[in-house]
Amino acid sequence: MNKTAVQTLNELGKTRTPFLFVIDFEREHPWISPLNEVDPAEVLFDINGISNVLQKSIPEKQLEFEFEAVNKSRYQKAFDLVQQHIGHGNSFLLNLTFPAKIKTNFTLKEIFHISKARYKLWFKDRFVVFSPEIFIRTEGRKISSYPMKGTMDATLPDAENRLLNSEKELGEHYTIVDLIRNDLSMVAKDVKVEKFRNIEKIKTHRGELLQMSSVISGTLPETSREHFGEMLFRLLPAGSISGAPKQKTLEIIREAEQYDRGYYTGIFGLFDGENIDSGVMIRFIEKTNDGLIYKSGGGITAKSNCEEEYRELVDKIYIPVFNTK
After folding, report:
1. Cα distance between residue 146 and residue 159, in whole Å
2. Residue 324 in domain
3. Residue 205's pLDDT band (boundaries 50, 70, 90)?
4. Does 140 reside within a domain?
5. Pick from 283, 265, 19, 275: which is nearest to 128 by CA?
6. Domain-located, residue 325
7. How does 261-296 read in b/e, with b if 16+ C-beta sit within 10 Å?
8. Quick one: 314 exposed, middle or buried, by C-beta within 10 A (0-12, 13-18, 19+)?
9. Angle formed by the axes of helices 246-257 and 72-87, to 10°?
10. Cα separation of 32 and 65, whole Å?
11. Which CATH number is 108's domain given?
12. Partners of 215 in beta bridges
């Protein structure tokens, strides 16, 4: 646990100072700033409509987007390793991800402006996020998490029923809901599943996807604002992008993926002085010395099929276009 970050979050919560936070997957490089000190020239955010964007800049050009996904043989090797661990009982669900090389005629900031998502972040021209996935929200003492697990191409025949009735997707979703219930129980009481398996349609520049999520909630202690740091770091990394059991699964992820996720699959969010709203950093484009990369993946269980999982990884390489001229 990053003690400096925890102390900073605790102090800002205690004084009810609004702040923005960005925490990487390994929780080694958290970035925290009082909201009135966030420089729009460095960081742009839009969190469910709360934003520091003064004027949306829509480029007068059509989006061009090409990608080269991870080699199938590399994915197969990692998939087989994960299945070995699952077979030995070391994991029941593991989120396997890989980077893809992409080319586009839009800058990271332009992608921020044209994309439509609950959680958008442009961070120091290093990466851009346009995520549909909620991490946690608080409303007074109520805390809620919204794990997203289960994806299907919306153009497939009877896609919604196929997603709801898929044995693999159902098992994956049950596992993640159970994991999030356990996670929330570390920081809250009276944890319960409020909604189970909501289906949401997401429009992308390549078509439409269906995604499945649930709602789990609990009651925080009266002093929770004074301990935001401990609370956030105890819940990290997010269960939906790691797996179960969490600590052993994290070890397997590092062994199987063999790359640094960085801020991808971390979290970012906003404290408005009373409540937190935060998202998981999926749908993620990063600038590197070798060009732009797009990181994506999906959950692996004992019932997973390698070809189907690879296709899901590819399907998630998209930009949810808001509007282009």
Report:
1. 22
2. no
3. low
4. yes
5. 283
6. no
7. bbbbbbbbbbbeeeebbbbbbbbbbbeeeeebbbbb
8. middle
9. 150
10. 32
11. 3.60.120.10
12. 195
Q: Which residue has the tokens 């990466």?
A: 127
Q: Evaluate the omega torsion of the peptide bond into residue 237 and state whether it is cis, within 30 degrees of 0.
A: yes
- % residues pLDDT > 90 (the chain): 66
Bond prior to 245 in cis (omega within 30° of 0): yes
DSSP secondary-structure letter at 105? S
- Split into its structural domains, the chain has a count of 1
Is the residue at 320 inside a domain? no
The span from the CA of 1 to the CA of 125, in Å, is 27
Half-sphere exposure of 133 (CA within 13 A, CB side): 26
pLDDT digits (tens, 9 = 90+) for 73-96: 999 999 999 999 999 999 999 999
Whole-Å CA distances, 194 to 145, 214, 276: 10, 8, 19
pLDDT digits (tens, 9 = 90+) for 261-289: 999 999 999 999 999 999 999 999 999 99
Report whether 113 contacts 320 (CB < 8 A): no
Question: Which tokens hold the place of 155?
Answer: 């153009």
- State the residue range of the domain holding 295: 3-315
- Whole-number Å distance between alpha carbons of 170 and 173: 5
- Please state, in angstroms and rounded to a whole number, the distance separating the CA atoms of residues 129 and 290: 19
What is residue 280's predicted lDDT score, i.e. its pLDDT? 95
* Tokens read off for 176: 């993640």
Q: Whole-angstrom Cα distance, residue 63 to residue 105?
A: 7
Rounded to the nearest angstrom, the gap between the alpha carbon of residue 147 and the centroid of all alpha carbons in its chain is 9
User: What is the C-alpha end-to-end distance of the chain, expressed in Å?
Assistant: 46
Place of tokens 């061009």: 64
| Side chain identity at residue 106, one-letter code | F
